[in-house]
C-alpha cells in the first residue's frame, strides 16, 4: 500500500523557536482578526512583488498578519 500525506505545513521549528509558514497564515487567518497590520495600496503592491516595506508606523509585535482591505496577505517579521 502507498500512503499519500496531504496537508498544510503550519510552522517550522528552529533553535530560537518557531516560524509560521506564509501559506498557513494566508489559509487560516481570518479577515476580522484582532489588530491586523493594514497596508496601503502601494505597500500591498510591494508585498506582492516580494519587496521589503518600511511603514511610517512600525508593527507593535515581532510577527504581524498583513492585510489590505481586510483579507490577509501574509505574515511579516519585524526586525
Tell me about this structure.
The strands form two sheets. The chain has a three-stranded mixed beta sheet with strand order 3-4-5. A two-stranded antiparallel sheet has the order 1-2. The longest helix has 8 residues, at 41-48. It has 79 residues and is an alpha+beta fold. The model has no long low-confidence stretch (mean pLDDT 82). Helices cover 19% and strands 27% of the residues. The chain contains two helices and five strands.
Attribute tags:
79 residues; alpha+beta; three-stranded mixed beta sheet; two-stranded antiparallel ribbon; 2 helices; 5 strands; 19% helix; 27% strand
What's the end-to-end separation, in Å? Answer: 47 Å
> Strand-and-helix sequence, N→C?
EEHEHEE
SSE class: alpha+beta
Number of strands: 5
Question: Helix and strand layout, with pairings?
Answer:
Blueprint: E1 11-14, E2 17-20, H1 22-28, E3 37-38, H2 41-48, E4 63-67, E5 72-77
Parallel strand pairs: 3-4
Antiparallel strand pairs: 1-2, 4-5
Please summarize what this structure is.
The protein is of the alpha+beta class. The chain has helices at 22-28, 41-48, and strands at 11-14, 17-20, 37-38, 63-67, 72-77.
Amino acid at each position: 500500500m502507498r500512503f499519500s500525506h496531504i496537508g498544510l505545513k503550519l510552522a517550522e521549528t528552529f533553535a530560537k523557536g518557531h516560524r509560521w509558514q506564509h501559506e498557513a497564515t494566508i489559509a487560516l487567518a481570518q479577515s476580522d482578526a484582532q489588530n491586523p497590520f493594514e497596508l496601503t495600496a502601494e505597500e500591498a503592491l510591494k508585498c506582492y512583488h516580494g519587496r521589503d516595506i518600511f511603514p511610517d508606523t512600525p508593527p507593535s509585535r515581532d510577527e504581524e498578519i498583513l492585510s489590505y482591505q481586510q483579507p490577509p496577505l501574509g505574515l511579516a517579521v519585524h526586525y
